[in-house]
Specification:
heterodimer; A: mainly beta; five-stranded antiparallel β-sheet; globular; B: mainly beta; 57% strand
């Protein structure tokens, strides 16, 4: 079993839909949870950063962490074609070191 | 706009060449990272520098040689690479005690 599981998709939804992206993990030591957006042939862009459990909102994006279920989510409201990208979850620490474990990434397409 | 810059954007090199990738950050971060990313895969950590000292080497072959000349700059020296080393090489930076890593746009390397 991988330490972080993320459905690679691809996921295709119409413009304006609410998108839900998810990761599950097995390591209860993880405290820091990130979501990155990566456009084709570009570097990952940090979208959301959450420490421990709870929700965090930034514009159309909401990140949720449920440590009891070892499950994190990213919601995108009023999705736009410009949101089409690969979304990577990442979490740490790994063995107490300043390292992240990444999910496999979900490829998302928003259709106009 | 990313505050982590990488040069060159693209690099094609033969297996006997020596080349260097460069990374610069202007965020005052004291931790810097090199990652390798293959197509449709998440970034894979190679090296971590903390306060300009190598703190993590993920058992990377010696044909990859990192260097951190000062707190803003990170280099990756390449020598005698193999075609399977062709990938997107990403630089990232963060505060030393933080897991919020900010990525550069990457250098797309092709080894012929």
């Amino acid at each position: 079993q991988k330490e972080v599981e993320q459905d690679p998709g691809p996921l295709s939804v119409p413009e304006g839909a609410i998108v839900s992206l998810n990761c599950t993990y097995s390591n209860s030591a993880f405290q820091y949870f990130m979501w990155y957006r990566q456009y084709s042939r570009k570097g990952p862009e940090l979208l959301m950063y959450t420490y421990s459990s709870g929700n965090k909102e930034d514009g159309r994006f909401t990140a949720q962490v449920d440590k009891s279920s070892k499950y994190i989510s990213l919601f995108i409201r009023d999705s736009q074609p410009s949101d089409s990208a690969t979304y990577l979850c990442a979490m740490g620490p790994v063995e107490g070191a300043q390292k992240l474990v990444f999910g496999q990434g979900t490829r998302l397409t928003i259709n106009p | 706009d990313t505050e982590v810059t990488q040069t060159p954007k693209h690099l094609v090199m033969g297996m006997t060449n020596k080349k260097s990738l460069k990374c610069e950050q202007h965020m005052g971060h004291r931790a810097m990272y090199w990652y390798k990313q293959k197509a449709k895969k998440p970034p894979e950590l190679m090296f971590v520098y903390s306060y300009e000292k190598l703190s993590i080497n993920e058992s990377v072959p010696s044909r990859f040689s990192p260097e951190c000349p000062n707190s803003s700059l990170l280099n990756l020296h390449l020598h005698a690479l193999q075609p399977e080393d062709s990938a997107l090489y990403l630089c990232a930076s963060s505060q030393v005690q933080s897991y919020e890593q900010y990525f550069g746009p990457g250098t797309r390397l092709t080894v012929t």
